[in-house]
């Protein structure tokens, strides 16, 4: 039996997204492009075993559920980002 439990968060809070992109793309540049002057941090996590992809932790303060989801959607829609968690 499956059930869903709604996530209850207190905003503002620091949220981390995991982004995966082809290794030749610059995660910091992409993050700056999407988040503009908003304070954020990008830290490389690891490369794929074959070296084609790299994953990065993107940390940013979010102010509401809508804000958190809007950033997720913007990351997901970016052409150079292959996957977002």
Description:
With 85 residues, the protein is α+β, with helices and mostly antiparallel strands. It is 26% helix and 38% strand. It has two helices and four strands, in the order E-H-E-E-H-E. The protein has a four-stranded antiparallel β-sheet, covered by helices on one side. The chain is globular.
Structural class: alpha+beta
Order of helices and strands: EHEEHE
Alpha-carbon distance between the two ends: 25 Å
Strand content: 35-45%
Shape verdict: globular
In short:
The protein is an alpha+beta fold. The chain has helices spanning 27-35, 65-77; strands at residues 13-22, 40-47, 53-62, 81-84. The two termini are 25 Å apart.
Please render the helix and strand layout as text.
Blueprint: E1 13-22, H1 27-35, E2 40-47, E3 53-62, H2 65-77, E4 81-84
Antiparallel strand pairs: 1-3, 1-4, 2-3
Notable characteristics:
single chain; 85 residues; alpha+beta; four-stranded antiparallel sheet
